[in-house]
Amino acid sequence: MEEDTLNNLLPASDTDLDFSFTSVSTATDRTFACSSARSSLARSSLTLSFNDRLSSTSSSSPSSSSAPSSSSSRPHRGSDPNWSAIKTATALSSDGRLHLRHLKLLRHLGTGNLGRVYLCRLRDCDSASFALKVVDRDHLSAKKLSHVDTEAEILSMLDHPFLPTLYAHFTASHYTCLLIDYCPGGDLHSLLRRQPSNRLPLQAVRFFVAEVLVALEYLHALGIVYRDLKPENILLRENGHVMLSDFDLCFKADVVPTFRTYRGPSDQDRTGNSNRTKTKHAYRRGSCFGAANEQREPSKEVVAEFVAEPTAAYSQCCVGTHEYLAPELVSGAGHGNGVDWWAFGVLIYELLYGTTPFKGGNKEGTLRNIASSEQVRFPAAAEKEEEGMAEARDLIEKLLVKDPRRRLGWAGGATDIKRHLFFEGIKWPLIRSYRPPAEVRGLTRKLMRSKSKGQGHVSHVPGSHRRRRWWWKGLEFFMRAKGSKHSYYYCSRSSASNHSNGNYYRYYVNNNKNGRLLD
Fold first, then answer.
1. Contacts of 456 (CB under 8 A, 6+ apart)
2. DSSP 3-state assignment of 364?
3. Where are the alpha helices (DSSP H) in 373-484?
4. pLDDT, position 151
5. How far is CA 435 from CA 47, 166, 324, 460, in A?
6. Which domains does the chain possess?
7. pTM of the model
8. How far is it, in rounded angstroms, from Cα 240 to Cα 244?
């Protein structure tokens, strides 16, 4: 009966939409990411006990779920009304489990390469909304099936206010269904394209990227390298805060937590008791994201800090969105955790300037710029620019360093980035309680109103182009270094195999509009 319900709700034809909870894994050769992800998760010393509340999906009932218990939800979810709704639904169930029949599917939200996403609610509780991702396993290759399982396993590890929560994992016949958070505010890409010159105010940028930074810090502490950071994957909750999505490009590595010390602000300054915001030369009284006036010199003391960064992470799989690819990822020489911090720098640049720093006339030009540019270039400064733009440019320059081992964040992760002047004054332990800037709250309300008019899960901006991940085929693009110059030429895949010069770096050139990089 429940399988018939799903079949009846599936659209007659697929659309190529990039919606929030649609995992768009492909047949990319992700040997490290897919084949060893589950074993890596199992052996990692930092694996959370969250999986304990996800029982085995095998059950006598074809539609029963590995439904988590709301009573065992993590601390940040202690007051989550969705858990309360699930607890009520499971209490009414004869076997104490959540089933598909408990869900009321309201409408189709989007379709991706792996499955479809629906807005749904519990039949006995209309106040709690969820996103249900439905994957038809009969229509996927074995490799794509491993991507689905890997993403579900990574989602089951996550428990963070800026990351999605996996509320239940259903199996019904040949369907796999994931019940996750529903974000009605759309994504940051749509929000950005609604702004003059596609730019956000500096304080709004600080708000968003600070929350993204905390989310990346959590992922890296678990040994998860994200590899797909871009505005399209940063969703907006109803309250204006962010949530990262799409974890199918992640790969898992071991991480060894360490403690270290440095000379930093006194305990009073660090905890924010003085209610002052530190600038480059002095402390100023003000809010966490706002301006200030009164000045005084900070005191220094030895501060101990915790660092958990997967510096040993390594993969040779070339995946991602071309404008956000790090140089080591483009070259195919192997990459690790540094690709996330490069993408973080590109994200800040795009939010501030309305475009990515290495964008070329086409995809090949973009890859050429990423590989050959020694230093990021900024648009000409306005006569009167916002206070803090100098600090923003300095942070971007430190993140967009070609050598990943010299890149800010490679060794110390988010801990080092948080200490940059661009973020000074933010009280990190309280970041979840901050209200979005006034401009952001107004823009989020506009997205919510357009959503209520039935425009879909992610508000579409007329004329905007949503960047896709590439599925690369056909030609290959080579670069040969000759001193300080570079020569570029094209060759076929067959002729490429005849080259053995170690100075050749392989680029994969797309002849498919919506492609993805492959090894």
1. 19, 109, 110
2. helix
3. 389-399, 414-418, 438-452
4. 86
5. 31, 25, 29, 25
6. 2-181 (3.30.200.20), 188-257+308-452 (1.10.510.10), 259-306 (no CATH), 470-519 (no CATH)
7. 0.73
8. 13
52 is catalytic: no
Region of 127 on the Ramachandran plot (φ > 0 left; ψ -120 to 50 alpha; else beta):
alpha
Spatial contact of 286 and 276, defined as CB atoms under 8 Å apart: yes
Cα–Cα–Cα angle for 160, 164, 167, rounded to 5 degrees: 105
Q: Which of 187, 228, 248, 340 is catalytic?
A: 228
Alpha helices in 79-231 (DSSP H): 81-92, 142-157, 188-193, 202-221
Taking residue 411's Cβ as centre, other Cβ atoms within 10 Å add up to 16
Angle between helices 389-399 and 202-221 (to 10 degrees): 30
Instruction: Write out pLDDT tens, residues 250-260.
Output: 999 999 888 88
Answer whether 510's CB lies under 8 Å from 12's CB.
no
The two tokens of residue 62 are: 């074809």
Listed ranges 22-36, 310-324, 441-455; the one with the highest mean pLDDT: 310-324
Q: Which residue has the tokens 């993408």?
A: 343
Calpha distance 426→276 (Å, rounded):
10
Tell me the chain's radius of gyration from C-alpha atoms.
23
Contact 332, 310 (CB under 8 A): no
